[in-house]
Specification:
Length: 708
Amino acid sequence: MQTLGLLDIFEKLPPCFVLDGYWDILLAIQMDLFKQEEWRLKLLEELLPLSGLPPNALEVILDDVLALLVEEKLVIPHKQGGYAKEEFEEVYGVLRSCIKNSPRRMVAWALWRAWTREKDKITVKDILREISYPDEVYEIILEEGSSSEHFGMSSRGFLLTNPYERIRKVKEIYFGEQDPHTIIKKIRELEAKEVSRILRRMGFKDERFENVNLERIRSILYECYGSVWPFFGNIVVKGDPYFKLFRGQSSTVYVDFPNEIIGYVIDKVGRASEASQTKDEFYNKAKMFLNEVNKRLNEVGIPWLKFSIQPNKFMKKPYGLKISIKWNKFIEYVESFSRAPTLIWEKYSYISSSRLPIIEILSRGSREKRHDYTKRVQNGVRALCTYDMKSIDDGLDDIKDTLNTMQKNLWRLSNRGEVPLAMLVYLLEAEVIIETIRQMAKNGLFPSCYRELRKFLENLSWAFFGDYLLIKAYKRYGLPYPSYALLVSKGWYEWRDNKKVMLNVKTARDRVNKLHEKLKQTYPALPGKDKFWSTVISGVTFPSFTFLFGKRISSERLPMEVPRYLLHTQIIPYAIKDFENIGKRFGLPNPEAFGKDVIDVIIKIDNKIDENLAFIIPPYPTNDLVLTFVEKWFGVNKKPKLTTKYDEYSTFVHSYPESWVVFPFSSVIEVKVFKKEIMEIESLIKELCRAYLNIFKAKSQHSSKKKV
């Protein structure tokens, strides 16, 4: 059940479904009784002793219930095998837990459903139509006669009684009345009277419903979450002289509540109780403290939680600590918090504050009890997140489809493998990683999913990075250099560390700034540092990037894994052409001279004018440089930014307690946050893939393919 999907249930299904007869049918469906051959007849046979209704009357109800359940796709028709879908189980659980025995919520449900259909034209008759049996049921019962065994006494309220009890009530008030039409009319009058009484208690002073307070109705319906929201267990407070916790929601450790704060408040109130000499002293201390707590909760955006100290004559202690929950505000908080642009580690700080306090509860009882307890919590979270999990699955499917589509295009665009693209290789792994993330998500291992997503973004960015330099060089010069991503290795990485040669964003920027400073003396028309940096970075290809940031060497021995290129034949001639193109973009009058000057300035910056330096080693960039350049090259500057997501997911690589799993499916918010992340990653991947394929659309500048 989607968290805000509770109102969808109340909009699509009528509240009469919780009445006897209707409910018996739902129970039978939930028990899979209608899977049998000739299931409809079998179902009727099973229901007759349960409901006590005549077969003809039960058949009327059965037709109505099954038609609506099939229409809303909660039940598969018998011609297709006949079975209840998973969503039916969730709907059944909600109705059983929080509606079946509450006339107030039943009327609120009817009013909500009527409003969604009629808006300003609602009448009491519209509500009665939603919460009562059809006339035909009463007519069948009255025609066949009513045995006294069906006339029982009920304390559930008139609106929750079965048809026999309603008939009995009318005959009791209007003694001797036998006319079926009159009896049905009187039943409707008693129903209307009870509805009006409940409506007055809900704040409706008349029956015109001209200004329906939807917020009031919504808050009543959202009370259902108090019954279905998963919880870790109960808080135990012992030995405090002046207070104890009220029972119910005040002592329940719910999923996704700030339980560390709640524990802190209870502890502070307990200390005030121990330190006070009288109950009045305790009351004043506790009240002042709780007022400050409530004020602070409002300031930090948790207005749905409130603490109060109240006297209670039915408790052994003079005061009770009450924890009030505005469920409608809490549900809105869950949704808005999950969708907020807050950094993930900040969201996990809240999630952690909710579930870390369960350690004490987990320590209670045997291993079997702990297993049953965790299973109950997990089932509750899964039930609330059914649609969120489906959205996650669909999002992963979309990412996979996007990558598969690009893979098909790349084989053709790479001239059937003539251009050695890293992306063609990496997409094979990418598919495996997406499936790994899917399985982890199904098991509720969301911190592990973020670790995989981070590695996925890293490897994908390296493939983009390497192929960009390769494709641009190939289209410009016909040179099929190997992709950067296919060159990297552990041996090269370690050589880089030993030589202390590292290219990150800062060192790259410093080098380009120094180049700008030197060139500005000869070319005063050059733009400022930022524009110069941006133009140079977007204009380089493999040769110019290697020359600008690489390490020039003589013929010294290198580990096999470290790539090297002939400086004067494989790199400089094409680097000059790249810098000429950059000079054209600056609008310089003599770009050819600018290209050669850039080469000379770079050599002078390094003080390397020895002609024996015949080789150059490409720079081994850090991940932050790779991701930053990919963002720049592919124009991925919209939110979410690639570098931002990569940095956020680093939280789950390091040993922060906030990112520990604790146990799977112990947070509704955690599921919803991951759904948001998958939607954003899907959008990011699509944008990257479109930009990547656009590189191939650029017109080639070489007339014949040269081989190295």
